[in-house]
Amino acid sequence: MIDFRSDTVTKPSAAMKDAMFAAPVGDDVFGEDPSIMALETYAAQLFGKEAGLFCSSGTQTNQIAINVHVQPGGEVICHEESHIYKYEGGGIAKNSGASVRLLKGNRGRIDAKTIEQWINPPLDVHFPLTQLVSLEDTANRGGGAVYSFDKILEIRALCDSLGLPLHLDGARVCNALAVNQMDPAIYGAAFDSISICLSKGLGAPVGSVLVGSREFIHKARRVRKVMGGGMRQAGIIAAGGLFALKNNRERLTEDHRHAKLLEATFLKQDWVEDVLGVETNIVVVQLKNAAKRDEILAQFMSFGILAMAFGPGMLRLVTHLDVSSEDIDFTCEKIGMISE
Ligand SMILES: *Cc1c(COP(=O)(O)O)cnc(C)c1O
Questions:
Q1: Residue pair 7/201 in contact by the 8 Å Cβ criterion
Q2: How far apart are CA 10 and CA 162, in angstroms?
Q3: Same structural domain, 27 and 176
């Protein structure tokens, strides 16, 4: 099976498993796991931050960050289709008792002007206090769309003028950085906190890392403990994450090239209405006939290709390090054989 359902389906390579097998470990709740500390330090330095925190998932890093930034009754501003709102089980309400202001915006991205319109006047007691702005780069529901750094800087300037923290759901931030070819530390300086998934395109089996100031991470460590996320000899998995950050970032451009090949092939098919312009590793296909979605997915499956339903009349295919160039050639050939 060639599995395009998500970039979370990757399996650790032999070299990654060797690194995990050899990882020195200790009790991380006592602060004694050298492999976790190495990962946290590496990720923090990479993004120009003081400290890092290894967590079990991207949902956990996002939810912890929100919990540190926001008080109960406060408000988070984010895109209406953002992962923190749509795909984290109502965690903002449940974990932090906070309200959410959902904004519209092009392909999962929001802009400073719209954010500014929805920041509540802090002295008017009617309104929840706006306490956090959260961006997603790349934007999953936006088909892997990338923010231009100028737009991020406008949002940063707005947040600075109001004393608001800015969080990044950077589940696929390394994909974004591969496109704009930016130094992660320069990019990272625009945010107060960044959640980075190790288990997506970077290919580690488990985990995400949260980075920010020393003070922020200290608070986050407490929240992680409270949420039951204090792990013990988890260096065995952190070592896979460190291997991923060190070895699997540069090759992301290959996934992006593969996604472009899929896009070009889809656009030639008469059963395809459109493809969200591919910028990174996510290909979102809009079908001419929405009712045929599941039948088309079944045809893919009969060729040994797994894609995912992504809302009415839409398919999503995600390229990743377990999809080879040969797999892409094979898939492009089969796309041409699919009929409505
Ligand atoms: C996958 C993802 C996450 C985190 O997901 P987990 O499965 O909890 O690791 C967060 N944000 C975005 C945009 C994602 O795609």
A1: yes
A2: 41
A3: yes
- What amino acid occupies position 257? R
Specify whether 159 is located in the same domain as 269.
Answer: no
5's tokens: 């359902």
Q: Is the CB of 81 under 6 A from ligand 1?
A: no
The answer on 295 and 159 residing in a single domain is no
Dist CA 124 CA 112 (whole Å): 22
Residue 340 lies in a domain: no
CA of 83 to the centre of ligand 1 (A): 7
Q: Is the CB of 82 under 6 A from ligand 1?
A: no
Q: Is the CB of 79 under 6 A from ligand 1?
A: no
* CA 338 to centroid of ligand 1, rounded, Å: 31
**Nearest-CA neighbor of 158 among 110, 126, 95?**
110
Cβ(64) to ligand 1 under 6 A? no
Is residue 224 located within the same domain as residue 328? no
Counting beta carbons within 10 angstroms of the beta carbon of residue 59, is it exposed (0 to 12), middle (13 to 18) or buried (19 or more)? buried
206 pocket-lining for ligand 1 (C-beta < 6 Å): no
CA 273 to chain centre: 27
79: left (phi over 0), alpha (psi -120 to 50) or beta: beta
How far away, in angstroms, is 125 Cα from ligand 1 center?
34
> DSSP string of 177-190?
HHHHT--HHHHHTT
Range of the domain at 270: 251-335
Condensed to tens digits (0 to 9), the pLDDT of residues 164-207 reads 999 999 999 999 999 999 999 999 999 999 999 999 999 999 99
Are residue 201 and residue 327 in the same domain, yes or no? no
Confirm or reject: Cβ of 224 under 6 Å from ligand 1.
no
Q: What is the amino acid identity at position 7? A: D
Look at residue 2 and tell me if it is in a domain.
no
Q: Whose CA is closest to atom 6 on ligand 1?
A: 58
pLDDT digits over 212-221, tens only? 999 999 999 9
Q: How far is the CA of 144 from the centre of ligand 1 (A)?
A: 13
